[in-house]
Amino acid sequence: MKKKFKNIEEVVGPLMLVNQVEGATYNELVEIEQANGEIRQGKVLEVKDDKAIVQLFTSSIGLQVNTSTVKFKGKAQELGVSPDMIGRFFDGMGRVRDGGPEIVPHKYMDINGLPINPAAREFPTRFIQTGVSTIDGLNTMVRGQKIPIFSMSGLPHAEFAAQIARQAAVTDGKEFAVVFAAMGITNDEADFFIKDFTKTGAISRSVVFINLANDPTLERISTPRMALTAAEYLAFELGMQVLVIMTDITLYAEALREVSAARKEIPGRRGYPGYFYTDLATLYERAGCIKGNPGSITQIPIVTMPEDDKTHPVPDLTGYITEGQINLSRDLNKKGIMPPVDVLPSLSRLKDSGIGEGKTRADHSGVLNQLFACYAAGKEAQDLAQILGESALSDLDQKYVKFASEFENKFINQGFYTNRTIIETLDIGWELLRIIPRNELKRIKQVHLDLYYDSK
Predict the structure, then answer these.
(1) What is the C-alpha separation between 225 and 296, in angstroms, rounded?
(2) Host domain of residue 421
(3) Rounded distance between C-alpha atoms, residue 376 and residue 365, angstroms
(4) What does the pLDDT look like over 160-192, one tens digit per residue?
(5) Do 107 and 241 belong to one domain?
(6) Nearest residue to 216 (alpha-carbon basis) of 100, 93, 333
(7) Which residue from 205, 237, 254, 274 has the fewest beta carbons nearer than 10 Å?
(8) Residue 456 has what pLDDT?
C-alpha cells in the first residue's frame, strides 16, 4: 500500500530523514513530490523506529523540505523487461538513452533479484568462446561461470571488454546475448562503447547500461543490478545464453563506500563498509545455470586495482567469490602486445569442465598444460640470460627463450579486432610447440603428438 508523509526533518547531501513513518521497509522505492508538481525519486536505506533515511537518486538542490510530500511506494526498485531490450542503450536507472521509443515491458522485476537455491544450481560444463586465445585456449570459460579481469590504471581494459562483447559466442547454436554495464565512465568512454557497439553490429544482440561519472552515486549502485535483472530475464525466462560484462567494479565499490560514509556507518578495511563482501556476493552469485532451465548467465566483471595492488579489498574479495581471474600486464602493454593478458598468474578454475572431445577438441587439455609449462620455462630462461648472457644458455634453453618470444608475439598478441575460433587457437598452439623438441612435450598424449606435432 502506498503511504504519504510530510514529516521531512532534514536533508544532508543526497540523504533525507523522514520522521513519523509507518510501515517503511529497506530498499523500498520513494517518490518526493514538491508543491510545483516536480517529482524526485529515492529509496529507503535504513529504518529505525518511526524514522526512515532515504537516499535520493538525484541531487537534493532546490528541494523544498517544508512543502514536499514523501510517498512510499510499497515495493523495491524494479526494471521493466521485454525481449525488445536487445539492441538498446539504457542509463543506470533503466531509462532509454538512445533516443528510440520507450520499451513496453512484458513484466516488472525487482532489481535486487532472488538468490538461486544451491540445490537447484547445475554445475557449469558448457564452453563459451570469446575469440581471445589467452582465454579460450588457456583459461577457458564455461557458461554459468564468473571470472573477473584484473586490470590496472591506464591499461586498455575498455577495449578488451568491447572485444569480448563483440566476439563472444556459443558453439552449439543456442540463442546468445550480451548484457553490458558500464559504471562511472567518462563521456569519452561512453562515446567509445556506443560507437563500437553500433559500428561493429554488436548492439544487435546486446543490452547496454551506461552510468556516467557525473551521474548520481545511487545510480551507480543500481546499474549492475539493472544489468543482472535484464540478464536473468533473458536467461531464465527466455532461455538464452547470456554473458554479462561489468566495468568497472572498483568504481561501483567507491560509490558504495561514499553511501556508507554518508550514513556514518562504521568503516571496514580502507573505509569500505563491513558488508562489502556480502554486497559483492549479491552481484557475483547471480551468475549460474539452473537445473531444467536451458538458459545461463556468465559474468566477466572488470576490476581496476588501485595502485596496482592485488591485495586491495576490491580485487581481494572479488577473487574469493569468483572462479579464477584474467590478469592484464603493464609489461606486455609496454611491448605493444594486445590484449596484454598475463598468462602465468591467470586462472580459470572451471576450465577442465569445459574442454575436450565434444566441447572444444580432444587435444585441448594437453596443449593447454604444455603451453603453460613451456612459457614458464621460457620466462625462466629469459631471466637467466639477463644474468649470465645468452651464450651461457644450453641449446634447449635457447629454444625455450625463442618459444616465449614467439608465444607472446603470435599467441597472446592478436589485437582487439581479431576473432579466433578455438580450433584456430589450438592450431597456433601446435605451431609454437614445434619449436620445442618432441621428447620435451611430456604433458601431451602420444596419440595427439602423432596427429598434430608431426602433421607438418
Answers:
(1) 17
(2) 364-455
(3) 17
(4) 999 999 999 998 889 999 999 999 999 999 999
(5) yes
(6) 93
(7) 274
(8) 61
